[in-house]
Write a structure and sequence with these properties.
alpha+beta, SH3 type barrels
């Protein structure tokens, strides 16, 4: 019985013959096809969406003018008092103004946010 196992063992160590090269080529072709599909369905639309969002943000920052009600990236609501080259002066309370970077402006205030009433 041990002789049968010992005789079959060297056969298991030998490389398979014939068709080995075409299997590698087929695998590489399949991987390239999967990557191309992944690129067309996931990566490319995401890049397009990101470019559009960046363009809209640049247009928003370039169109800022005094009187616009904005929200900063830190969540501060205010009204634009002055627009400078790289900063914006915001009025956040009746007699309180702060200067923030233009890039800190997240967007315009939505219509559902109401102006805070002055303290009495």
């Amino acid at each position: 019985m041990n002789n049968n196992i010992a005789l079959g063992f060297p056969l298991l160590l030998q490389a398979p013959t014939g068709g080995g090269g075409s299997g590698l080529l087929g695998t590489m072709l399949m991987m390239a096809t999967i990557f191309a599909i992944f690129y067309l369905l996931v990566i490319r639309p995401q890049q397009r969406k990101q470019r559009l969002a960046q363009k809209e943000r640049e247009e928003l920052l370039n169109a800022l003018k005094p009187g616009d009600k904005v929200v900063t990236s830190s969540g501060i609501y205010g009204t634009v008092v002055a627009v400078r080259e790289s900063t914006v002066l915001l009025r956040i309370a009746q007699s309180v103004s702060i200067e923030v970077l233009r890039s800190a402006i997240q967007g315009l205030q939505s219509s559902e946010v109401k102006e805070a009433e002055p303290a009495k």
